[in-house]
Amino acid sequence: MKWPMTALGLLITAAAASAALTPLPPGPPSNPTTPEKVALGRALFFDPILSRDRSVSCASCHDPARAFTVPQAVSPGVGGRLGRRNASTLVNVGDRQALTWAGASPNLEVQAMIPLQDHAELDMTPELLRERLQADPAYAAQFRAAFGEAPSVQNLVRALAAFQRTLISRDSPFDRYRAGDASALNEAQVRGLDLFFDRAECFHCHTGRDFTDGLAHNNAMRVFNPDIGLAERTEQEGDVGRFITPTLRNVALTGPYLHDGSRATLRDLLETYNDGGEPNPNADPLIHPLGLTDAELDDLEAFLHALTDESVARNPAFRPERP
Fold first, then answer.
1. 288 is in an annotated binding site
2. Quick one: which of 20, 25, 85, 184 is 20 to 30 A from 116 by CA?
3. CATH class of the 25-168 domain in this structure
4. CB neighbours of residue 195 within 10 Å
5. How does pLDDT run across 73-103, given as a tens digit for each residue?
6. Does the annotation list 61 as a binding residue?
7. Matching CATH topology for 5-14+170-311 and 25-168?
């Protein structure tokens, strides 16, 4: 196996770190995780009470059965309005340092306010959120149990963040293989693993225990980018079309792919990368034709399927019903 030592070292470190994960991640000092906050956040996540017309919930775009994504290019929100970007998976989201496709949020507490107020998503105001939750006796009791006070928007986003930090996925065949179970991957998946860390060059951007560098890249999927990505924040021409590298955990479940959902299948995505993408002035220099054969693409796709953690869909703690 010709794995670059930097990438291999990161994965070995990740395997040790994942073994030390606790069932209840601590959270930041400003929002330490408690069972009461998680229970409240879980109830809110699946409740359409958070949308203006009570038609959609957080789970409408982040379904546990699909690793907290949905199979649409962009998801419908209130009144059937469509958002701009593909819904990202929430597995291991508590580890992210830059949230949203353009890295617009530094933490989950800030991130939660974006879909809540977005006209194309939940379309709520802080005043209406507070009014609804305070009028609901069950939520009033849960907020007091979790925070010792009446419902507020500040504590609403804290509860949602606490629940999302529990959405941990670390039990894929790849994880078992890295832990020493040689039978966890089949021969095609092992060949794909070698390609991933060698000639396919995926490891440059998809690194670490969650297979993402957390940085923004222009991956040359379009000649012209109508969605300018990171440049929304930086107003720099060189950032047009740059988006945060997504995790590859559970990637076989999270299609369609890219920020706009423009690649329907993993094979579509792999073939585009193999061809070297489209000519784009901001294309990352790492993007170039790879020259992989169809058989090698088969193996690479097989390895990506080995990043699926089937326990996510089965975990009762990730469902609306109580475990």
1. no
2. 25
3. mainly alpha
4. 20
5. 999 999 999 989 999 999 999 999 889 999 9
6. yes
7. yes
As assigned by CATH, the class of the 5-14+170-311 domain is: mainly alpha
When mean pLDDT is compared across 8-17, 29-38, 84-93, 268-277, the lowest value belongs to: 8-17
Give the tokens for residue 240: 């047009």
Domain ranges of the chain: 5-14+170-311, 25-168
> Residue 204, annotated ligand binder?
no
**Signed CA dihedral, 59, 60, 61, 62: sign only:** positive
Model-level pTM greater than 0.70?
yes
Annotated binding residue at 217?
no
Torsion of the alpha carbons at 261, 90, 143 and 26, rounded to the nearest 10: -160
Q: 3-class SS at 243?
A: strand
Q: Classify burial at 276, counting beta carbons within 10 Å of its beta carbon; exposed 0-12, middle 13-18, buried 19 or more.
A: middle
Distance CA 296, CA 299 (A): 5
pLDDT in tens, 195-223: 999 999 999 999 999 999 999 999 999 99
